[in-house]
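Below: protein 1.
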Amino acid sequence: MSPTYPSGRDVLRESVREQRRDVGLGALLASGHQVGEALVPVLIGVVIDRAVTGSDTGALLLWLGVLAVVYVGLALSFRFGAWAGDRSAVRSEHSLRLALVRRVLHPGGGAEEGRLPGALANIATEDAKRVGGVNTAVMYGIASLAGILTCAFVLLRTSVLLGLVVLLGTPVLLWLGHLLSKPLETRSEAEQERAAHASAVAADLVAGLRILKGIGGESAAIARYRTTSRDSLAATLKAARAQAFQSGMVLSLTGCLIALVALVGGRLAAEGSISLGQLVSAVGLALFLVGPLEVLAWVNAELAQGRASAGRVAEVLATPRGVTAGELSLPAQVRGALRLTGVSHGGLREVDLDIAPGELLGVVATDPAHASDLLRCLARRADPDAGTVELDGVSLRDLDPAEMRTALLVAEHDADLFEGTVRDNVTAAAPASGDPGPAMTAAGVVQVAQTLSEGEDTAVSERGRSLSGGQRQRVALARALAADRAVLVVHDPTTAVDAVTEAGIAAGLREVRRGRTTVVVTTSPALLAVTDRVVLLDGGRVTDTAPHADLIARHETYRAAVLA
């Protein structure tokens, strides 16, 4: 049975359903406010008919007191209704944001494919906020309808004709407002798409700022962002024009309805069908209608923008996972035996490889893309197109990715650091009872800490930009070693360090990982020299395997890959 994924409308419905208690409470209180607002012109009409016209001071004081009570009630109901509505919007936004983050961070992956980090951040903030705001819009929409129905009821009691004008005119006005919101929905979706792309490009440029300055690429980067920003501006202006047109047209139609109510009321008063107080009430109610009808126009616009944002949120939530969880579990004690049988993926072609428990294996790929393909399969960011990867005799396809990664860790070459201290970064994935000291020594982080102002407690900025490239690499390698996994795969962990430091790291890596399976994907002679054996991947196939010194002596392709 194929899985079902949420649509934009499903996301909206779920957002309102989860907060139905607050939405219901807010709608009830806001409806009380609208009913109170509608009763104000009615009470003024009663005061005119029963107190002012008859010069009855007692009646005047009585009805003024009733009017004061109504004002207090509508003020309090508005205050607490707005509080409940805002709370429902914020909670819904928070819930959506958590759902999006859970989806992006899911071990099965997939949500990040084809999307820049900035675009995902925009969806989790701006789009989630718009969808959450639908709760407030629904609340105010219900309250506005309650006000309009109250107005229609009073007018029906005053004159059937006046009541029918409101009862028949309001649905027509709502239907026209809905039709007018369609262009806004389309343009709002385009606006959010372009804004998200602009945010993503900006984040991408900021992340590579140091590199851009180093190669003198500032002008090209500025030109790229200027083009993206102009596209975003154009989409925003189109959406703004659509919203202005929709608001203007709805306001004009609202004015026509109010003018019609006032015209009919005036004619009835002139004919003597209604009293002076009832005429004042009718005119007051006609003016009161401006508020609820404007709110309904705003609700239409909010729903249009909310639907567009909900579609973008649903698209991320509905992204198929890159890999699915299997039903098997790893043995209680993982030995660390890896076996690749007939693995084909990307550029890899029928790769067969046995890695014994506790072996330190080097892998040299003549094409860096093939190294990346191998890492994707070992990390189970993707399943092989053909063949199997097994850990202790269990296919990775049959394991939950989260459980698998508690035993097998793939440390990518471009792994980022996080905000915090040097020590916090090293111990991020370490067992609670583990000692990070050996890992820090093996990776050369102890030497790094000695050059920093506060040693291991030195603060690290976002993505580790406060450290040099070599320092970042050593901290990232120490983090992978401190995780203490049964199987560790590292990719080019020393490309940014000098030869002396690299030799020390190679010796430290072998020592700290002694007895546990380790795969080093690299072309570094210093690292390859400490491995038990090396596998040569050429043209996506395993073409030779032997100790490093033997491959250097007998294989020209190998010499070209590691000594060039």
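Below: protein 2.
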Amino acid sequence: MSRKLWALLVALALLLALATYVYYRRTVAAEPVDAYALVPDDAVLVLTTRDHPALVRHLQETQLWDNLTAVRYVQQAADHLAVADSLAGGNGRNTSLLALLGRKQVVTSVHVTGPGAFDVLYQVPLASVREYRQVRGLLETLGRDRRYRLSQRLLDGQELSVLTEVRTETSLTVLNYRNHLIMSTNAGLVEAVVQRLRHPGAPTVLAHFADTDVLRLPEIDAALWLNFRRLPQLLDVLFRPAAHARFDHLATLAADGLLGLRLTGPVAELAGFANPETARGALQAQVQGQPAQPFGLAAVLPTRTALVVQLAVRPLAPAGPAGPDSVGLRVALDSLAASFGPEMAVAYLAAAAPGVAPGRLAYLRCPAPARTARWLGEVRRRTGQPAAFTRVGGYEIHPLGVAIGGLLRPLLAPAAPGEAVPAPAGALVGGYLVMADAATLSGALADVGAGLTWARTPAYAAFLAHTLPRARLGIYLDTHNAWNGLLGALTEDRRAGLLRNEALFRRFPQMAWQLVPPPDAAAPGAQYFGRLLLHRPSAGVGAVLAGAGEARGLAFPSPLVGTPLLVAAAGTRVPAALVQDSAGVAYFVSPDNGVVWADSLGAPLVGAGPLAAGPGAAGGLALAAGHRVHRLALADGREAPPFPLNLPDTVRATALHTSTPAGAAPRLLVAAGAQALFLLDAAGRQYPGWGPKVLDFPLAGAPALLSVGGRDVVVCPLQNGYVYAYDQRGGRLPGFPLSVGARLAGGVAVQAATTLGRTRLTVVNQHGELVTFTLVGDVLARRRVATWSRTATFRLVPATGGGASYGVARDEENGRYDFYLPPQAAPVVSRRFVTSGPKPTQFFDFGGSGRAVAVGEPGPGLAYVFDAQGRLLGGQPLASTGAGVGLAYHAATGTYQLVRLVGRELRRTELRP
């Protein structure tokens, strides 16, 4: 062959290769891959995520992240990624497959692959050649390690990479289809993807939701597609078949659904749409056209209830016995069925132990109870039942007998198919016919009579307030009460997994699944609205036990320090809280114990206070840490310009005090050490003479920042027994400094007025004298609080939040402690503590009878909370490792909400006098 001919052939080959490459890039590669077209048809669940940083952040805010990372499966995956990072030379932070996720659409599908087994298929798009090389290099690096074995095989022209761990012989199969990474530990699932590629036009699992993209909705963290037709197969993997068979019929209301996941504080919500089931014999055919019903069972459900299944359907008339003598009985049964309303429910009570059958209650709504009672009596008479009954409280329990139970069994078939009616006893309670065995029914009625119901328990009332008002199907679960039942219903290997991950499962102890039909259910393509709610009861909401209701603590990564700052929240009597941990991170915690935002301040928080809105500035929180003053928004923790304000680098703030005069911008008084003060406004302007104001002697307590007749005044009590009062320019007011005759300790109580002469201030000196004076330097009164001694220390404790109210603490070296509320002569609190030294004291005055004093004992880490009569609230001291506690008062109920720090936990406790 001549050289010219050879060169021509080479040129043609190159041109052909170039044309093929251009065709591929402009046609095949340019067409995006539909990830759902690669999901095998037997998927039970398909989870789609797109913004992984936001998802992780929301999981952390709802305290689910720590629980998830404790799951053994997640730990094993993290271990493999850590090994891959080290072998690939990564820095352990943003390398490996975790960095590939970012804001990509990642699809995860769950499949039942055998008896008692399910597997997961992952799909991750690769956006660049660099990412492809990273994944390829990662697999090759692991394949060269002696702990792994890497091999390749072809299937229908697609190359499958199989990475096997030598020790366990477990493998990961990986397919790269058009820069779309598909992987699973089950090779059959990846092979099923290759088989789907043979039929590119086949409908996808999301064919019924092709025009719906829930991930585009605001605040949606993930999308979940659920195949109700295959849900019983997944339940077979988790539960014993006999345990869930009675509920499988409920899944035939819908064929499939697409839900959006939203994580917000105490609530995890999955909401979206579901297509009605069209198969013959499905429950959907029986309830078609039935309107949704409200949940009216709250007043008759005991708090021991573990599971409730409510269905909006009118009971069908049961078939009576045949024969000419049974005509009257059939008429009575038809009339009894006609007296029931379109709602039925089955409730399961908490089981005494795993494997013990729970008590079961059946409910049928009775719009006209008198009519139902009359026809029920007629049925009982015609079946030969005695007229005797037993009474529990104000309720009558009538025996029904096995015969009536068999006749009434079809009434509850839609809600509990295959189950016998709980007989032989029934009672009319709150507009419902309740049927159960005699012992279960007696116990349930006793609970209802005692008020131990969902309607009268705040935790359940708050849960139901978050649910939909009406539904065709409602399933409500309390995991605390259902725990033993779940342990008994799970298969043996799944039971061990439940016990290992108990914290994750109990994170949201209240769950509700509801299906609501559209207003026009007969319209073509009408879909259900479906909602799965995972709810955590708010802290401080629940039953109060023996004067103190302890709520579950909220754990943080590092020990908490300082004193929690409480912020009132609209619509709830439980306050929000600002806390900081030893790592310098401040957390704003919502009333329901959800972390709203977190901010690393880089230094210990030395002062904080709510800042009211002023001209040109929104309200928020003022914080002092290190040499900076911050102003953060309550909603999201963002810094409000021009904050942060910077003090000189050599200065470290030790306290912060705020004031917002009427019609004026907020003022900020920052203490730096014991003898330096800075006065600034919200715009960051430093007032002349306050840059800083250096005092002659250390402060005895917190200075007072107030506004009198439009003038800013700063009052400083000093340890040497002198009180100074300064104006806005740093000059001393006439009449000051004022000597109080002895050394000082503690703060200043202020009774503000419109003029300097009418404004009254009070301090206490170490002779036990209360000294009251004005801002013109006139001493108005002196009186002794208690007997003076050389070992006694007196401190004035202003009420938290400022104001004229105050108390006086008296400490003795022998551990004796007294607290006075002038003008009372006798101490309100008088106690001898084991430890000596001054006790941190906080005085709270909420007006009226809402006054309390909190005394800390730092040595053993205890807090004592007393009311205005000196009674110890809760009956015993409570653990507290912080510098102080937070306390709120609800006048309508007369209860206190105590917020305290215990190690790494923020704990809320409800206290009653």
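The longest strand covers residues 254-264.
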